[in-house]
Write a structure and sequence with these properties.
By secondary structure, the chain is α/β, with parallel strands linked by helices. It has 9 helices and 8 strands. It has a single domain (2-230), classed as P-loop containing nucleotide triphosphate hydrolases (Rossmann fold).
Amino acid sequence: MLVVVASVSGAPGVSTAALGLAALWPGRPGLLVEADPCGGVVAARFAVRQEPGLAALAAAARHGLPSGGPAQFVQSLPVGVHAVVGPGAAETAAGAVSVLAAQPEAVAGLAPVVVVDAGRLYPGSPAHGLLRRVDALVLVTAGGTEHLDHVDTRLAALRASLRTRGVGLAVAGKTRYTSEEISGRFGVPVWAHLPSDRWGAAGLCGRMSGPAWTRTRLAQALRALAATLAARARPAPRAVLEVVR
């Protein structure tokens, strides 16, 4: 299953949500692929190297992935998830994302569940190519009127890019609108409300160690979102690359 987490404006917590989804996926963690063309943040937040990571994976993908699978490009994060981390430099990140987005089936085949942090899906973002294969697109948005208006202006174009109807919203922070009002306006479900939770965010941003973050309100919301998305999963193909054997 390929899940893309993104926003259309601002910085409502896409990286935090994507990491939490991968870590809390039912049964076993998913693989996080940090494919934000504006540059990655995971390596800096968790004090890991930028390589092996997305740039090396993209370089290998130009000639077909090695027979050993993606394991050589993956790093283990303290929150209990494996990740292909993105480079911090926007130019390098955008180039790597362009290469991988041209091969969405290969990205989807990296693991049984791949959660992609696509950053902001601005018009012309190289990450748009991934939408041709995505099983679920999670648009993270703040709940204010101006942020929802931005979703309104971009949603039709994004839905036209999808091969399925699998798009939903994750509303971050407080909002004066109900889920029914938001869903009724956009014609897509509100899959989650992500609370403002400094402890949960601290665990997913590398500022707090240990498993305590998994008991926070944010973790509970992300665990429920992961379960909702997992229920949409198609039967997995028999031949699939495992990240860790």
